[in-house]
Amino acid sequence: MGCGRVGAMIATQLDDNGHSVAVIDGTADAFRRVSADFSGQRVTGLGFDRDVLEQAGIEDAYAFAAVSSDDNSNIIAARVAREVFAVPHVVARIYDPKRAEAFQRLGITTVATVRWTADQVLRCMLPTGGTTDFLDTSGRIALASMSMPDAWIGQPLDQLVDQEQVRVAFLTRLGKGIIPDETTVIQEQDVLHFIAAKDDVAHVERAILRGPEGEEA
């Protein structure tokens, strides 16, 4: 929802990567911002209106991003996507950092504008895609991140480390970085930041997605 500069960037990148995309905006003229070869659906209307969301295919959506210029619209749309349509991955742009933390507690990933980029939103929408945050000078070692699957919620982080041999750098919880210890338990909306060889990042992500002791996440 929202076809401003960054919303258009997100829609275009997802479309270029082969995803099925729908972009919603209240003004049809806004769709001029997407690339000329954008093959996704353009829906004119309010992004928190259920009929508009259904027209855009929300019932089959894997992820939803509310990135309009209005905090209230983004929060309402994100809550409808998560609570009414049960979209697995929902992220909202919030201009007010104080409000962002409050809405995190509602189970909606929020990103305050001061730290916000299109790449951050894409990582929240697609936890297993485009997750490399940093490469060393040789290009071989990566610092990567992914949202923790529901299957790991309530499990000790040490279990993940032991089971998958993951080298954990830190966690992001409710928008704040924390250094885990032997007592750390994985919570909803935690983002894991781990270190791996660049070529092994996808393998580590797939292993984590299997869940504890090989269960499907």
Topology of this structure?
Layout: H1 5-16, E1 22-25, E2 41-44, H2 50-55, E3 63-66, H3 71-84, E4 89-94, H4 97-104, E5 109-112, H5 118-125, E6 132-135, E7 141-147, H6 157-164, E8 167-173, E9 176-178, E10 191-197, H7 201-209
Parallel strand pairs: 1-2, 3-4, 4-5
Antiparallel strand pairs: 6-7, 7-10, 8-9, 8-10
Helix pairs in contact: 1-5
**Class per helix and strand makeup:** alpha/beta
| Approximate strand percentage | 15-25%
Order of helices and strands: HEEHEHEHEHEEHEEEH
Mean pLDDT: 83
**What would you call the shape?**
globular
Report the major sheet: 5 strands, antiparallel
The strand count comes to 10
End-to-end C-alpha gap? 27 Å
Question: Number of helical segments?
Answer: 7
Q: From the alpha-carbon coordinates, what is the Rg to the nearest angstrom?
A: 18 Å
pLDDT under 50 segments (min length 5)?
none
Biggest sheet strand line-up: 6-7-10-8-9
Helix content: 25-40%
List keywords for this structure.
single chain; 217 residues; alpha/beta; 30% helix; 23% strand
Describe this structure in words.
- The structure is a single chain.
- Helices cover 30% and strands 23% of the residues.
- It is globular.
- The strands form three sheets. It has a five-stranded antiparallel β-sheet, covered by helices on one side. Strands 3-4-5 form a three-stranded parallel β-sheet, sandwiched between helices.
- It has 217 residues and is of the alpha/beta class.
- α3 (71-84) links the parallel β3 and β4.
- It is built from seven helices and ten strands.
- It has helices at residues 5-16, 50-55, 71-84, 97-104, 118-125, 157-164, 201-209; strands at 22-25, 41-44, 63-66, 89-94, 109-112, 132-135, 141-147, 167-173, 176-178, 191-197.
